[in-house]
Amino acid sequence: MGSAISSSLMMGLTWCCCTASGSLCQSCFGTTAEGTTGRKRSVLLLTVATALALWFQYSLGPSIVTMDGFLWKMYRVIPGMGKMVYHSWYDSCEPYDIIDGEDGDSQHLLVQCAGNAGVFRPMAIALIFFVLQAGATYAQASLNKEAWPAKYAMYLILVGITVFFNNAPWFTGVFLWVARFGATLFLILQQVILIDIAYDWNEDWIDRADQQDRLSYGSGSSWLHAIVCTCVVFYLLALTGIGMLYHYFGGCSENTWIITLTLIGFLAFSVVQLSGTDGSLLTSSIMSVYVVYLAYSMVSKNPDGECNPQLGGSDAWGIAIGLTLTAVSLAWTGFSWTAEERLKIDNVQSARSVTGLSPEANGASVNLDQPFLDPEDRPATGLVTESDSMPSAANGRLAGAGVWKLNVVMALICCFVAMILTGWGTITEVHEDENSAANPTVGRVNMAMIGISQWTAILLYLWTLIAPRVFPDRDFS
Q1: What is the DSSP string of 347-394?
Q2: Distance between CA atoms of 87 and 94, rounded to whole angstroms?
Q3: Is 15 exposed, middle or buried (0-12, 13-18, 19+ CB in 10 A)?
Q4: Could you identify which of 167, 242, 267, 307 might form a hypothetical disulfide with 92, taking C-beta atoms 3.0 to 4.6 angstroms apart as the criterion?
Q5: What is the mean pLDDT of the chain?
Q6: Per residue in 312-349, pLDDT tens?
C-alpha cells in the first residue's frame, strides 16, 4: 500500500514538473501555433553556441593541448582517442609552442591558439546551421518553427564530432576568414539594429508624453526631459570615449587619424540631423557611441606596441562590449516586432520623421496645441514583446514570410561572436625586442575591415538623413 502511494506521488510530482517546465519553455520561447515564427528558438540555439564557445575557449581547448585537467584524463581513458584528439588540436598550434616568458613558460601562446580554435568549432557549426535554415525557410517559412528538439540534438552531436577534427584548414583557415567577412557585414547591419531600437525607444517615450498630455496638458514633459537627458548621457559617453582614445592610443599618427575622423564623422551626422526634421537626436547619440566603439576596436587591434598599450593583454572591455552588442542584437532578432520589417531594403533607406508628418505634408506647420502625436497615429512598438507572433499575422498575412532574413542575421552574429571572443583571430603577444604582435599582418587586416565597417555605417546613416531632402517626392516613411 505504501509503495503504491509513493509511486502515485512520484508520478504526480513528475507530471507537475514536466508540465511546469513545458509552460516555462513555452512562455519564454513561444509556441509553434499558427502565426509564430520560431525566432526565439533560434536565439536560444545561438545562446547555447556562445556558451559552448566560451567553454571550449577557456576549458576544453587548453586542457587538451596542455594534457591537463579532467577532460583530458577522460579522453585518455579510451584507447587511441587521447592521441587523436591531442593531435587534432595541437598540430596547427605547434608553431606557438615556444618559450615566451622569463620563467620558461611555453604555454601562453599555445593556450591562446587552442582557445581560438575551440571558439571556432561551435560557432562554425552554428553558422552552417543558420545558413541551411535560411535556405530552407526561404522555400518554406514554416520550417523555422518545426522540429526544434531534433535541431538542438543534431547541433550538439555535430559540435561533439568537431572535437576530433583538425584545427586546420577548416576552423583556423576557412572559417576564420569567412567569420572575418561575416563580422564585417554584421558591424554594418548592427547600425540598422541600433537605429531601429533607438527609433522605437524615442517613439515610445514621445507616445507616453503625448498620453500624459491628453490627461493633463504639460504633464508629459518629464518623458521629453528623459529623452534629452539620455541624449546628453550618450553624447558625453561618446566624447569621453574620444578623449580616452586620444589619451591611451594617441601615441602615433595612424591612431590619431582614426580617432579624429571618428570625431568628425559623428559630429557631421549629428549636425545634419539637427538641421532637419528627419531622424531623432536619440538615434544620433546612440550612433555616436557606436562609431566610437568601432574606433576603439580598430586602434586596439594595432599590432604596433608603441601605438597600442593593450597589446599582449586581454581585451576585457572589447569582449564585454561586443557580447553586450550581441545580446542586444539577439533580443532584437528574437523579440522585436519590427525586426523583419526593418530588414527590408525599402525600410532601411531613411530615417523616420520626428514630427510624425508624411512627406506630402513637409510644408505644413506643426500644431503646438496638439503636441507631437495625433490621436489617430499608430502606437509605437517597443523592443521587447510578450508574444512570438508577428504583427503581420494579425493582418491576415502569413507570419514569418521573410524569416529567412533573420536566419541570415543569426549567421552573421555567429561570425561576430567568433571574432569578438578571439580578437578577430589574433594571437596577442609582444616581442620585447621588436615591440610588435606575434602575427602583425592579421592585426592590420582586422583594422582595415573594422574601418570599412565604421565608415560604411557612418555614410549609411548620413544617407538616411539626407535622402528625404534630396528626393522630396519619394515616400521614405
Answers
A1: HHSSPPBSS---GGGTTSPP-TTS-S--TTSPPPP-S--S-SB-HHHH
A2: 10
A3: exposed
A4: 167
A5: 75
A6: 666 677 778 777 877 777 776 656 544 555 555 444 44
pLDDT digits (tens, 9 = 90+) for 440-459: 666 777 788 888 888 888 88
Contacts of 114 (CB under 8 A, 6+ apart): 61, 62, 64, 65, 89, 90, 93
Q: How far is CA 54 from the centre of its chain?
A: 16
Element at 265 (helix H, strand E): helix 253-274
- Give first-to-last CA distance, the chain, whole Å: 73
Residues 6+ apart with CB under 8 A from 165: 88, 121, 171
Mention every residue, 6+ apart, whose C-beta is less than 8 A from residue 177. Answer: none
**Cell numbers linked to 272:** 545634419
Cβ-Cβ contacts under 8 Å for 309 (sequence gap 6 or more): 248, 249, 251
* Amino acid code (one letter) for 367: N
Model confidence over 271-326: pLDDT tens digits?
Answer: 998 887 766 888 899 889 989 988 998 888 887 777 777 766 666 777 787 778 77
The yes-or-no verdict on residue 34 having pLDDT over 70 is no
Beta carbons of 404 and 410 less than 8 angstroms apart: no
The helix/strand/coil state of 401 is coil
Longest dimension (CA), the chain: 86
Please name which of 70, 54, 63 lies closest in space to residue 86, comparing C-alpha atoms.
63
**Residue bearing the bigger pLDDT, 365 or 74:** 74
